[in-house]
Specification:
By secondary structure, the chain is of the alpha+beta class. The chain has 3 domains: about 150 residues, no CATH class; about 200 residues, no CATH class; about 230 residues, no CATH class. The protein is about 45% helix and about 15% strand. It has a 5-stranded antiparallel β-sheet. A hairpin with a 2-residue loop joins strand 10 and strand 11. The chain is elongated. The two termini are about 70 Å apart.
Length: about 750
């Protein structure tokens, strides 16, 4: 009979003829065909702006306090003007329209941002994302609170300060990439909008004045000070405050004074920086200014705040607690509230024509607050309204102050906004921030490579092998998993496949350096050792299972060995789970990511069981099953293991040694394999093997392996027969001395 010629697909068709093996090979073919179909049939996804959609969902007042509404978005990238009281207050935009805001999911994180005309972020809302850790793991409220923390920051000041002035990112545990992308994309997008709309201001333009001119004299009368802006005025009526409460959605507070005349004054508020020499002399008088100047420490500033009307800007909290809770000074992302030690009362204003006001007070701003009096700043007023027995509501109104240019003189050098500060990819920042962790991981991967290449030296020494194995499992769990949170997941596979059929960029995956390095090492190891480098040595959840099972054996918990026929059918479950997740990802990646909660990795490793009880109970149940069936989840349910096992037969080398007697009749390795990857007939299934090297330790063990035991016994028998005869036993008479005459008579 002619011998059959090998065919190109024999590598896929060998490995057994039972039904389960055929099903597994069919699953491989289906998966490969599906992937090819994705690449060929699905084109790149085109991103379109969703600004108009988001504006319809968020009222202008919620994004921009005091705003009446939005104008229609226009421009490329799109921008919507925010208006209030017939004036332009600022702009609304989506970060993803202006900068790359792609997270680890490969999809943009979309945030609606409000930006005031002075460069201050007034509001921000997370509108859409596909980040795996946030979908089910991190509570949305934590991410929302993180975003709100950037409200009030002035992006112009941040841009002028450069990279060193960037606010530090307050990392949310388990969502490092997500929150870093959120923070950076918000800042970079806001800075781009500020540049596009010319928000640099007079202090940012080349040659603009920056320093206070001590020789500039102010107008001698009150009207002149108001006209040139040296003194700023905020006048509010009862009706204006009521309307503000209506716009804020607090109708109860708005209706609390319906009987009052809306045209009645609520407060008249005036503010001026009297530490500016010309303004100080005009408002305090020459002697009053000199007294102030002598009392000010270097870097301190002084403000005159005066008011009239039924509402006092001072309130009563400064009497009880020493703090003025109704006013604050804001500049950029910094704010300052006055205490009684910063305050002194004045008898009046020395300027000709100044009104007779109820409250005239002097406040000092300490040097530690670094108030730049030459740059724009704001006085914030907290308006309070009470109704019922104890109900109170609050709103803030702001009085912007910009020192008139006539009080400034040119500086030797002017700080301006850099032309562009977002040319450095975000993933560069991530890699620099984790240099130490990257070094530790690379050393660990180098050690693991040496273990695999020189495994014969290690497995011939059972005690050393066991200690090395235990140490690496502890490292994988404690450092890779619980500390560095570099647990790989099937979500990474799905995100990669989704990005390939969309707008694929390596930047998406480089933003998580440890995850990227582990994936690169795992992909490279597939050619040498199939999936075992990760599944057997680097997976934190796999390490947790093995360590718990070790402890269970140590305390005497009986182990259950799944019958091999049942085991062969159960292993197919994880491949089915993976194919289902892959199919879901073709329709909607977010749905597949939620379904990927079949993996307990997020609960047990990333979030340390700090989740809702169903997730924690599920993870605990899998670990409980692992106490009697070692690596229960890895064997039967892990979709990541299935994804990595599918290309297992592509490996170029077979490092695991076997004897002809393995399986016929010896079953020692089959019985001891922790994942039952060794068939009864003796061969090792590469799809299930995790390269724990336990069978290789047995292979060389001359007290456990029957083949090695026989060789040892033969060797000992041979050594015994080849040894010299033993010395004469004591007590026997000594041999007689043989003389030369009788020597020839000896036989």
């Amino acid at each position: 009979m002619a011998q059959r010629q090998p065919k190109p697909m024999d590598w896929l068709l060998d490995g057994g003829s039972d039904g389960v093996a055929r099903a597994m090979r069919a699953a491989c073919v289906v998966w490969l065909v599906a992937v090819v179909s994705v690449f060929v049939m699905v084109g790149p996804a085109r991103a379109t702006s969703r600004l108009a959609e988001f504006l319809a969902a968020v009222p202008a007042g919620a994004l921009f306090p005091g705003a009446d509404g939005y104008q229609a978005p226009s421009g490329t990238p799109p921008l919507a003007i925010v208006s209030g009281g017939g004036q332009t207050l600022g702009y609304a935009f989506v970060n993803a329209d202006w900068v790359d805001s792609t997270g680890y999911s490969g999809k943009p994180i979309q945030i609606l941002i409000g930006l005031a005309s002075d460069g201050r972020i007034t509001g921000a809302r997370l509108m859409d994302h596909h980040e795996p850790i946030v979908l089910v793991g991190i509570p949305p409220a934590r991410i929302a609170d993180f975003i709100v923390g950037y409200v009030g920051r002035n992006v112009l000041d941040i841009a002028r300060a450069g990279p060193a002035g960037r606010p530090a990112v307050d990392i949310v545990s388990g969502a490092t990439v997500t929150v870093t992308v959120i923070a950076e994309s918000m800042m970079r997008a806001a800075i781009k909008v500020a540049r596009a709309e010319g928000m640099a201001g007079p202090v940012a333009a080349a040659g603009a004045p920056r320093l206070v001119d001590p020789l500039r004299a102010a107008p001698a009368d009150w009207k002149g000070l108001l006209a040139e802006g040296a003194v700023r005025h905020l006048a509010l009526t009862v009706g204006q405050v009521t309307d503000a409460f209506h716009r804020a959605g607090n109708d109860a507070a708005a209706g609390a004074v319906e009987s009052a005349n809306p045209s009645h004054p609520f407060i008249d508020l005036y503010v001026a920086p009297v530490s500016v020499p010309g303004i100080g002399r005009a408002l305090l008088g020459a002697s009053g200014y000199e007294d102030l100047r002598r009392g000010l420490k270097p870097g301190e500033q002084a403000l005159l705040i005066a008011g009239d009307g039924p509402y006092s800007f001072k309130g009563s909290a400064y009497v009880r607690g020493g703090i003025f809770d109704r006013i604050a000074v804001l500049q950029g992302d910094a704010d300052f509230r006055f205490r009684d030690r910063n305050h002194s009362r004045l008898g009046g204003i020395a300027t000709r024509g100044a009104p007779d006001l109820r409250d005239v007070d002097l406040f000092t701003v300490p040097a530690d607050n670094k108030l730049d009096i030459a740059a724009p700043w704001r006085l914030q007023l907290l308006a309070e309204r009470a109704w019922g027995a104890r109900e109170k509501a609050f709103l803030t109104f702001e009085l912007d102050y910009r020192l008139p240019a006539s009080y400034l003189k040119p500086a030797a050098a002017v700080a301006s906004i850099p032309a562009d500060d977002d040319t450095t990819p975000l993933w560069h920042t991530m890699w620099r921030a984790k240099q130490g962790q990257i070094g530790v991981l690379l050393v660990a991967l180098g050690v693991l490579t040496l273990i695999f290449f020189f495994q014969d030296y290690l497995v011939k020494r059972p005690v050393l092998y066991d200690r090395v194995r235990l140490s690496f499992l502890l490292f994988a769990l404690l450092w890779i998993g619980w500390y560095a949170q570099a647990q790989l997941s099937v979500v990474n596979v799905l995100a990669f496949l989704s990005s390939v059929r969309g707008d694929f960029r390596w930047d998406y995956f480089l933003m998580a350096p440890l995850i990227f390095i582990l994936w690169f090492a795992t992909a490279a190891s597939l050619l040498f050792w199939n999936r075992c480098a990760f599944c057997g040595w680097l997976c934190p959840f796999g390490a947790l299972q093995e360590l718990l099972n070790r402890a269970a054996r140590r305390v005497g918990i009986p182990q259950f060995r799944v019958p091999f026929a049942a085991h062969q059918r159960l292993v197919a479950i994880k491949y089915i789970v993976f194919l289902v997740l892959f199919g879901l990802s073709l329709d909607a990646l977010s749905t597949a990511e939620k379904a990927a909660e079949v993996e307990p990795f997020k609960t047990a490793i990333i979030l340390h069981f700090a989740r809702a009880w169903p997730f924690s109970l599920y993870a605990a149940a899998l670990l409980a099953a692992n106490l009697v069936v070692e690596r229960f989840f890895c064997r039967y349910l892990c979709p990541l293991g299935a994804a990595l096992a599918i290309p297992a037969r592509l490996r170029m080398f077979d490092w695991l040694r076997r004897y002809p007697e393995c399986g016929t009749p010896c079953q020692r390795c089959n019985n001891d394999c922790p994942v039952q990857a060794i068939h009864p007939e003796g061969h090792i299934n590469p799809n299930e093997c995790i390269q724990c090297l336990h069978c290789q330790m047995l292979y060389h063990h001359d007290h456990k392996c029957p083949v090695m035991i026989q060789r040892r016994l033969k060797r000992e028998k041979y050594q015994a027969s080849a040894s010299p005869p033993p010395a004469l036993l004591p007590g026997l008479p000594p041999r007689q001395k043989i003389s030369a005459s009788t020597a020839g008579e000896m036989p």
